[in-house]
Specification:
This is HD domain-containing protein. By secondary structure, this protein is mainly α. The chain has 11 helices and no strands. Helix 3 crosses helix 5. Bound molecules: fe (ii) ion.
């Protein structure tokens, strides 16, 4: 079973565009980067783009059950028949495991698997180089923006450092690959 990028876009639009327009702008920009990259990824390209569209659906007020968006999003997608890889990629996107520990839902996130592939790194790259309103941000600026937006006491900020090595590693592997395929200046 697969998830077409156009179907993923429609699903995300219904869940986010009206209720969370700023988050929707972020998602549109993340998916735009994923679409550019997808052309160079052969059979995994559509999977990357489709996952980029739905990666933040867990923020939608209608399905925020635990309040931890990677988990709420992954469970929603699983329950609505999304392919397992999409579900797993959403559950673990952008070092979600580190936040899950801080948020107290690590056991629940363990329902899913972190596939640790190039595709996963590239999804993290698209997300972690895009600001909350869709602007293009360097990775370090994006991390600083998260820290500032949530404040020092929020679990997201506390989790930033716990996941930082893994985030940096994913960004750096992505950059090597993007340079090799000539996309480094475009995304
Ligand atoms: Fe995101």
């Amino acid at each position: 079973m697969s998830l077409e990028p156009s179907d993923a876009e429609q699903q995300a639009r219904q869940l986010l565009a009206e209720s969370l327009p700023r988050r929707w702008s972020h998602v549109v920009a993340v998916a735009g980067k994923a679409r550019l990259i997808a052309r160079e990824l052969s059979e995994d390209g559509e999977l990357l783009e489709a996952t980029a569209w739905v990666h933040d659906v867990g923020y939608a007020p209608d399905l925020a059950i635990t309040g931890f968006h990677p988990l709420d999003g992954a469970r929603y997608l699983r329950d609505h028949g999304a392919p397992q890889r999409v579900v797993d990629l959403v559950a673990f996107h952008s070092s979600a495991w580190a936040e899950a520990e801080e948020f107290g839902v690590a056991d629940e996130l363990a329902e899913f698997d972190d596939e640790q592939t190039l595709l996963r790194d590239l999804l993290w790259y698209c997300d972690m180089t895009t600001g909350p309103d869709g602007t293009n941000l360097g990775f370090e600026d994006r991390m600083a923006e998260v820290r500032e937006r949530y404040g020092p006491d929020h679990y997201v900020t506390r989790a930033l450092d716990a996941g930082m090595d893994e985030r940096r590693a994913a960004i750096s592997r992505s950059r090597v690959w993007l340079t090799a395929v000539g996309l480094a200046d475009q995304v």
